[in-house]
Amino acid sequence: MKKIFLFLIMALSISAFSQNIRFEGIVKDSTGLGLEMANVMAINNETKAMDAYAITNDKGKFILNLKANTPYTLKASYIGFSTYEKVVNTSGENMTYNIEMNQGVQLNDVELVYEMPVTISGDTIIYNSDSFTNGTERKLEDVLKKLPGVEVNKDGEIQVEGKTVQKVMVEGKDFFDGDTKIATKNIPADALDKIQVLRNYNEVSNLKGLENNEENIAINIKLKEGKKNFWFGDITAGIGVGHEEDRHLVNPKLFYYSPKYSINVIGNINNIGELPLTARDYFKFTGGFRSMMRKGGSSFNVTSNDLGILGLNNNQAANIKTKFGAANFSYNPSKAWTLSGFGIFLGNDTQIQNISRSTRVDTQDPSNEAKIVNDENSFTEQQNNLGLVKLSSSYVPSEKVHLDYDVLMKLSKQNEDNTLFSNQTITDNSGTASIFNDVYSNKNQTPFSINQNLNYYYTLNEKNVFAFEMQHLFQEEDPFYNANLAFQPFNLGTDYDTSQARNDVNQSRFIKTNKVDTKFDYYYMLTPKSNINLTLGNTYSYQNFNSSIFQILDNGNVNDLNDDINSNNVRYAFNDVFLGVHYKFILGEFTFTPGFSVHQYNTKDSQLGTENTQSFNRFLPDLYALWQIKKSETLTYNYALTNNFTDISKLAEGYVFSNYNSLFQGNRYLENSLSQSHSLRYFKYNMFNFENIFAFANYTRQVDAIKNRALLTGINQTSSSVNINSNFADESFSASGNYGRSFLKYYKASVGASFNWSKFNNIRVYPDADTDPTNNPTEVQTTKSVTQSYNAKFSTNFKELPNLSLQYAFTLNDNQANIFYTDNPSVELEYYFLDAFSFVSEYSFYHNRSKDKTVDSEYDFLSASLMYMKKGSKWEWKLSGTNLLETKALNTNSFSQLGGTSTFSSYIVQPRYIILSLKYNL
Asked: Does an H or E element contain 10, and which?
């Protein structure tokens, strides 16, 4: 296989390099000064095609790879200069040719970017889509992967400069704001004209230059002229064969864009495992809501009580049936007013099968170490019906006034039935003992939330800017858990009836949250290069938490366990009032923004007939520094001291089931933890040779952290939350880097590495004869883990030859108990031939193994598609196959901080499917 890959690469390279020469020179003005970022292109006079293009470096130098003995029209352009155009005949040897440009009429953007594959205009990188396509592309994702400096991961997230793109727009209009996956998986490739990468993005013009937006990146799609003011898109229907039942796919995608309004409609019904959106995507969907308190210095996040139903591993499961519908609109009643919104429905019926082995060594007694092995075989059926609705209004009557209002509503209905067989084996000096348990559980919930956002920005004059922002979150959660098991591992009090043949345990919960964030900012421009920002803010949250554990007896009667340990009735209020001051100033190549915030905190929880209150102050500094080394080379440093608070879920002192073998008890006396973080980011983008370099490092130290205090009995765990002593700080360090380059128009390559080190402390409780568990012996258990990842990628992009994409990734996980290694080579093949056929195939191989050789597994996946579409036709036939090698399962390994439990799992995946589909393009 390796020899085949090398042969193909050499053959493609020889074809690309044959009879080519190096054509280089300098673009300069009339004084001889080199012009940086000038555009140079060579048009082949025989074929009328653009054979090469370049963007000059900081010295004005360019390099083109041209055919020998060929006439070319050489064109050059630069803002503020007249276009240069001249016919040049290449020779059989390398050539040097300098270009002198004359001052003239300034080019507008359309003239500047026309035909050029890549240009830069300020903070915007503009890609000409057709310059990077070869005919096999079907959606936005396929095109983005071929752009220099752009990556798309397996979850559909777009990354530029190592940063995740936060927003995708089409013709300046939001496309399902808050998620990029819907865009990458659905916008058709043949509709794309220009792809604009907007760096340092801020959609509020009033705040541009006042805030630091280097981490904000958005993408705007410019459509081809034939796609504007007309409906476009496609409708796909397919049928196929698989195991046990027939397979089907129906996927309509319709789009309409005009200057006044836009409409996008997407649907998908299938049982082949194609997921336009997963349940995990749904719950992390932000709707574009900004983190308005990011400069506040406090971290108070409302946790989710989702029962762990989100167990789907990407689009892999034993069986998946999907129903998906989404609609997005934008309407301009006037030039100043924009109305927009979207609605999303996702329905999944999923079957998950998992086989796992967990291993832990108990070292409480060094002379009699106990090895605990737990083998589990589980089968799960999930039904998820999830809905999202967002409405937005933006009113910008002038450059001075900007008013926004957004409302996002989430509602869902989820149900999960699980059958699990567990066999626990404990081996020590006394021998081996086994405990078998069969568990039948049900989880269901119907969470609901509505998030509202109101923003008002006003520019009084060039020196004074005001901003008011407010968010309100209302959320209700009602998770219900039932476990029917042969062996009940926990003592649930004297009211629990232990005489029953089965243990039928249930818990109902209800959590209600009202949270309001309010912030007022005043910016004063001291000089054109400095401003001061005063912030007055408040976060107020009020939460209710009710829960009860009850037992269903063998005769069907209900046994309520209403004692304090099995029920919760808690009220919790959190209030943070703060004043922040930040001073931003620019000194040559450097930008500094030092600042601080002063906080007054008040908390109160009511439970068990008493109240517990806390009130204190904090001073929290922060610093932002930017070194603008060159136009496209920066070094950024961030420092922050943050107060971290828990919400009501960790304060409720009654028992809460996390799982059939895991019980959690809150602690009302928890205090906040304090964390300091340092981050350093380097970025360089060289348009001369399309070199893209980024590196990132982050160190975090957290003291007085809220940690678990856990009693482990075999595989069973009873835990609570405590503030661990500041002498045992949690620490983490992460670093990553990537070097990428596109060269000779045909190749794109990159290498990358990441390193993560962490140290966590938890309190381990050891069982004792004492009936009071608070008197049991304890120790602080420190767990260190190291993860290293390395990857290399190489891809070609020819118009008339087959294209390869090769990738190799290696991961090392060292979790103290064991070291796991994962090798993951993969290859993709694309070929557009005979002006009608497209062939696309992807192969991935995985090898998981452990240092102690207890784990050694291999699996691979192969998929392929053959498409036929005549030029000018609206119909396309497609024959596709997934999991063609009939892989049965994928394997994963994990490690738990507490107790040092190492787990190896085998996750059953869908079998081979063959689908024949027909697509009609509007």
From this structure: helix 2-17
Share of the chain above pLDDT 90, in %: 54
> What's the confidence (pLDDT) of residue 922?
87
Local confidence band at 710 (pLDDT 50, 70, 90 cut-offs): confident
- Only one residue has tokens 């370049």, namely 54
Helix or strand (DSSP H, E) at 864: strand 856-868
Q: Confirm if 581 and 533 have CB atoms less than 8 A apart.
A: yes
Mean pLDDT for 511-534 is 95
The two tokens of residue 371 are 């090895």
The residues facing 579 across adjacent strands are 536, 598
Residue of 157, 160, 175 whose CA lies nearest to 217: 160
Q: Is there a contact between 919 and 236 (Cβ–Cβ < 8 Å)?
A: yes
**CA dist., res. 906 & res. 352, Å (int):** 11
Helix (H), strand (E) at residue 143: helix 140-144
Structure tokens that stand for 678 in this block? 């340092």
Instruction: Give the CA count within 13 Å in the CB-facing half-sphere of 427.
Output: 7
What is the rounded CA–CA span in Å between residue 189 and residue 223?
10
Residue 283 CA to residue 164 CA, distance in Å, equals 18
Please identify which residue in the block is written with the tokens 């959320």.
475
User: Pick from 171, 284, 157, 276: which is nearest to 217 by CA?
Assistant: 157
Give the angle subtended at the CA of 341 by the CAs of 283 and 399, to the nearest 5°. Answer: 115
Strand partners, 856: 849
Q: Is 303 helix (H, G, I), strand (E, B) or coil?
A: coil
pLDDT for the residue numbered 7: 47
Q: For residue 3, give both structure tokens.
A: 């020899």
Amino acid 244: pLDDT: 67
Residue 6: pLDDT band by 50, 70, 90 thresholds?
Answer: very low
> What does the block give as tokens for 291?
């983190």
pLDDT digits (tens, 9 = 90+) for 266-283: 999 998 888 888 777 777
* Position 315 confidence tier, pLDDT thresholds 50, 70, 90: low
